[in-house]
Write a structure and sequence with these properties.
It contains no helices and six strands. The protein is mainly beta and 85 residues long. Strand 4 and strand 5 form a beta hairpin. Strands 4-5-1-2-3-6 form a six-stranded antiparallel sheet, with no helix packed on it. The chain is globular and about 35 Å long. It has one domain: Roll (10 Kd Chaperonin, Protein Cpn10, Chain O).
Amino acid sequence: MILSPGVIAIYGWGYENSINALYPDNTIFKFGTIYQIWDGGAMYVYGGDEVMWREGTEQCKLAYGGNPYTLIQARLVTKQEPPIP
């Protein structure tokens, strides 16, 4: 995929719980794994990172190569876990 500036692609449509079994009190948040990031500048998230975002802020959801992906601006996601120093 060729992504627009600042956009990341996440595997699937997103999940209601994190890989660490974090369940938010409300269901407005989604969790997922980054498949690809825009490669035209510095980013604070990377491919394979687990992230969380607010549902409804996605740019689009699409199927590419028979697999579902969610596209979202990187500035709208946060890592699930802080990086290990």
